[in-house]
Give the backbone structure.
Amino acid sequence: MKSRFPLIIVCLVVGVVAGYVISMAVAPVTAPSLPTGERLIAVASPYGVSETMDLLSTELSDRGATIFARIDHAAGASSINEVLPATETLIFGNPMLGTALIQSEPNIALDLPLRVLAHEGGTGGGSTLTYLAPAVLAARYDIVDQANQIERISAILEAVIAATVAE
Protein backbone atom coordinates (compact mmCIF):
# COMPACT_ATOMS: atom_id res chain seq x y z
CA MET A 1 0.00 0.00 0.00
CA LYS A 2 1.41 3.31 -1.06
CA SER A 3 1.48 6.28 1.28
CA ARG A 4 -0.89 9.12 0.44
CA PHE A 5 1.19 11.63 2.37
CA PRO A 6 3.00 13.15 -0.68
CA LEU A 7 -0.27 13.42 -2.58
CA ILE A 8 -1.93 15.26 0.33
CA ILE A 9 0.99 17.71 0.55
CA VAL A 10 0.84 18.39 -3.20
CA CYS A 11 -2.92 19.00 -3.01
CA LEU A 12 -2.47 21.40 -0.08
CA VAL A 13 0.26 23.36 -1.85
CA VAL A 14 -1.76 23.57 -5.08
CA GLY A 15 -4.82 24.70 -3.10
CA VAL A 16 -2.90 27.43 -1.28
CA VAL A 17 -1.30 28.72 -4.48
CA ALA A 18 -4.63 28.67 -6.34
CA GLY A 19 -6.35 30.46 -3.47
CA TYR A 20 -3.66 33.14 -3.45
CA VAL A 21 -3.90 33.65 -7.22
CA ILE A 22 -7.69 33.88 -7.08
CA SER A 23 -7.61 36.28 -4.12
CA MET A 24 -5.21 38.58 -5.96
CA ALA A 25 -7.45 38.61 -9.02
CA VAL A 26 -10.57 39.62 -7.07
CA ALA A 27 -9.00 41.70 -4.30
CA PRO A 28 -11.24 44.67 -3.49
CA VAL A 29 -10.01 48.19 -4.07
CA THR A 30 -9.72 49.90 -0.71
CA ALA A 31 -10.72 53.52 -0.27
CA PRO A 32 -8.23 55.89 1.30
CA SER A 33 -8.61 55.96 5.07
CA LEU A 34 -10.13 58.91 6.87
CA PRO A 35 -7.70 61.38 8.40
CA THR A 36 -7.25 61.24 12.13
CA GLY A 37 -9.00 63.75 14.35
CA GLU A 38 -12.52 65.04 14.11
CA ARG A 39 -14.58 63.20 11.53
CA LEU A 40 -18.09 64.24 12.42
CA ILE A 41 -19.33 67.68 13.38
CA ALA A 42 -22.14 67.73 15.95
CA VAL A 43 -24.13 70.87 16.73
CA ALA A 44 -26.80 71.13 19.42
CA SER A 45 -30.19 72.45 18.38
CA PRO A 46 -32.67 73.87 20.89
CA TYR A 47 -35.50 72.45 18.78
CA GLY A 48 -36.83 68.93 18.45
CA VAL A 49 -35.79 66.74 15.54
CA SER A 50 -38.77 67.48 13.28
CA GLU A 51 -38.66 71.24 13.82
CA THR A 52 -34.88 71.29 13.38
CA MET A 53 -35.17 69.45 10.07
CA ASP A 54 -37.97 71.77 8.92
CA LEU A 55 -35.75 74.77 9.68
CA LEU A 56 -32.73 73.14 8.02
CA SER A 57 -34.76 72.34 4.89
CA THR A 58 -35.95 75.94 4.66
CA GLU A 59 -32.45 77.36 5.15
CA LEU A 60 -31.01 75.07 2.49
CA SER A 61 -33.80 75.74 -0.01
CA ASP A 62 -33.47 79.49 0.54
CA ARG A 63 -29.79 79.19 -0.41
CA GLY A 64 -30.43 77.28 -3.63
CA ALA A 65 -29.96 73.70 -2.46
CA THR A 66 -32.18 70.88 -3.67
CA ILE A 67 -33.69 68.65 -1.00
CA PHE A 68 -33.53 65.13 -2.41
CA ALA A 69 -34.87 63.16 0.53
CA ARG A 70 -35.83 63.35 4.16
CA ILE A 71 -35.60 59.99 5.85
CA ASP A 72 -37.48 59.34 9.09
CA HIS A 73 -35.57 56.46 10.67
CA ALA A 74 -37.98 56.22 13.62
CA ALA A 75 -40.87 55.66 11.20
CA GLY A 76 -38.84 52.93 9.52
CA ALA A 77 -38.20 51.25 12.84
CA SER A 78 -41.88 51.53 13.72
CA SER A 79 -42.78 49.75 10.47
CA ILE A 80 -41.06 46.63 11.82
CA ASN A 81 -42.45 47.06 15.35
CA GLU A 82 -39.21 48.45 16.73
CA VAL A 83 -38.69 51.67 18.64
CA LEU A 84 -36.14 54.32 17.74
CA PRO A 85 -35.94 57.84 19.16
CA ALA A 86 -36.71 60.62 16.70
CA THR A 87 -33.94 60.37 14.09
CA GLU A 88 -34.01 61.89 10.61
CA THR A 89 -31.53 62.31 7.79
CA LEU A 90 -31.75 65.09 5.21
CA ILE A 91 -30.08 64.53 1.83
CA PHE A 92 -29.42 67.70 -0.14
CA GLY A 93 -27.09 69.26 -2.65
CA ASN A 94 -26.41 71.91 -5.22
CA PRO A 95 -24.89 70.96 -8.60
CA MET A 96 -23.16 74.33 -8.78
CA LEU A 97 -21.12 73.27 -5.75
CA GLY A 98 -20.79 69.50 -6.09
CA THR A 99 -20.18 69.06 -9.81
CA ALA A 100 -16.57 70.28 -9.66
CA LEU A 101 -15.82 67.72 -6.95
CA ILE A 102 -17.26 64.88 -9.02
CA GLN A 103 -15.31 66.09 -12.06
CA SER A 104 -12.15 65.96 -9.96
CA GLU A 105 -12.87 62.50 -8.53
CA PRO A 106 -16.02 60.65 -9.67
CA ASN A 107 -16.00 58.33 -6.65
CA ILE A 108 -16.94 61.19 -4.33
CA ALA A 109 -20.44 60.82 -5.80
CA LEU A 110 -20.76 57.89 -3.40
CA ASP A 111 -20.91 60.53 -0.62
CA LEU A 112 -22.75 63.25 -2.52
CA PRO A 113 -25.31 64.71 -2.16
CA LEU A 114 -24.45 65.73 1.39
CA ARG A 115 -26.36 64.44 4.41
CA VAL A 116 -27.16 65.85 7.82
CA LEU A 117 -28.50 63.70 10.65
CA ALA A 118 -30.78 65.04 13.39
CA HIS A 119 -31.47 62.93 16.45
CA GLU A 120 -32.86 63.36 19.93
CA GLY A 121 -30.35 64.15 22.59
CA GLY A 122 -29.61 67.84 22.45
CA THR A 123 -29.45 70.00 25.55
CA GLY A 124 -32.75 71.01 27.17
CA GLY A 125 -34.84 68.52 25.20
CA GLY A 126 -33.51 69.64 21.85
CA SER A 127 -31.74 67.63 19.20
CA THR A 128 -28.30 67.25 17.70
CA LEU A 129 -27.34 67.85 14.08
CA THR A 130 -24.42 65.75 12.87
CA TYR A 131 -22.59 65.80 9.55
CA LEU A 132 -19.32 64.78 7.97
CA ALA A 133 -17.07 67.76 7.32
CA PRO A 134 -16.62 68.43 3.58
CA ALA A 135 -12.84 68.55 4.12
CA VAL A 136 -13.00 64.97 5.38
CA LEU A 137 -14.81 63.93 2.20
CA ALA A 138 -12.16 65.67 0.10
CA ALA A 139 -9.43 63.86 2.03
CA ARG A 140 -11.26 60.52 1.75
CA TYR A 141 -11.18 60.80 -2.05
CA ASP A 142 -7.81 62.55 -2.23
CA ILE A 143 -9.25 65.68 -3.86
CA VAL A 144 -6.52 68.30 -3.66
CA ASP A 145 -7.38 70.51 -6.63
CA GLN A 146 -10.69 71.81 -5.24
CA ALA A 147 -9.61 73.41 -1.95
CA ASN A 148 -11.49 76.65 -2.65
CA GLN A 149 -14.68 74.76 -3.50
CA ILE A 150 -14.40 72.64 -0.33
CA GLU A 151 -13.92 75.80 1.75
CA ARG A 152 -16.94 77.38 0.07
CA ILE A 153 -19.13 74.32 0.73
CA SER A 154 -17.91 74.18 4.34
CA ALA A 155 -18.66 77.86 4.92
CA ILE A 156 -22.15 77.57 3.44
CA LEU A 157 -22.91 74.43 5.45
CA GLU A 158 -21.65 76.04 8.68
CA ALA A 159 -23.79 79.15 8.04
CA VAL A 160 -26.88 77.07 7.26
CA ILE A 161 -26.42 74.98 10.40
CA ALA A 162 -25.82 78.09 12.54
CA ALA A 163 -28.99 79.73 11.18
CA THR A 164 -30.95 76.53 11.77
CA VAL A 165 -30.05 76.24 15.45
CA ALA A 166 -30.25 79.97 16.27
CA GLU A 167 -32.92 80.87 18.79
